[in-house]
Amino acid sequence: MRRPLIAGNWKMNNSVEESINLVRDLRDRELSEKVDVLICPPFTSLYAIINEIKNSSIKVGAQNMYYEDKGAFTGEVSPAMLKSIGVEYVIIGHSERRQYFNETDQLINKKLKAALTHGLIPILCVGETLEQREEGMEKETVKAQIVKAFKNIEKAEKVVIAYEPVWAIGTGKVATSEQAEEMSEFIRSIIATIYNSEVADNIIIQYGGSVKSLNISEIMSQPNIDGVLVGGASLNAEEFAKIVNFGEDKKGC
Q: Which residues partner with 37 through β-bridges?
């Protein structure tokens, strides 16, 4: 059975002190044991956060990484560096990385390989723009992203896939539960085609895009959605805890 993964992407927010206060607030709340809880703070707060949650079930991930182990790559952070401080997950290919930093599918593929090589669990982000959806190209777009990202990837079952329609990220717009489920089912079928049905049945698929406590139950009621990647709502401990505790009598129980 796929265990739900509720992840918070803090993006470029919070000083170290603010990050510590936020994670302490979250840590001290009663969080569901039926799901995995993950937070992805900025690089500057990673080590401090990891020390704060040593005796907690909360997991920590990074928001990005480079694919080389070391070298003259000014401003970059390697998977080995992340692993050495206790990071478990890493977000790869977020639409903001693709949009603002021109990350290509080829680069994302290299990052995916490097993360897996170093024992990190990558969260691969895929999704279409509003223009692509309006043109009826959403499935074609997502399929191309997945096929290129998974090129020569052997440990596919270790990868988490986050479907984040670009038009729903930070906009307040949310894909309907039917749209999110349809795409998640489609993503699972792509993985089955590339690999096999066993890998497809075991891979975790998240939805991301203006997730809040008000819509989490409907999102998580969909059979092919195994978790969420939360943006702005994860910066509020009370709201994020509500998302984590979306329903003790629902999926994951």
A: 6
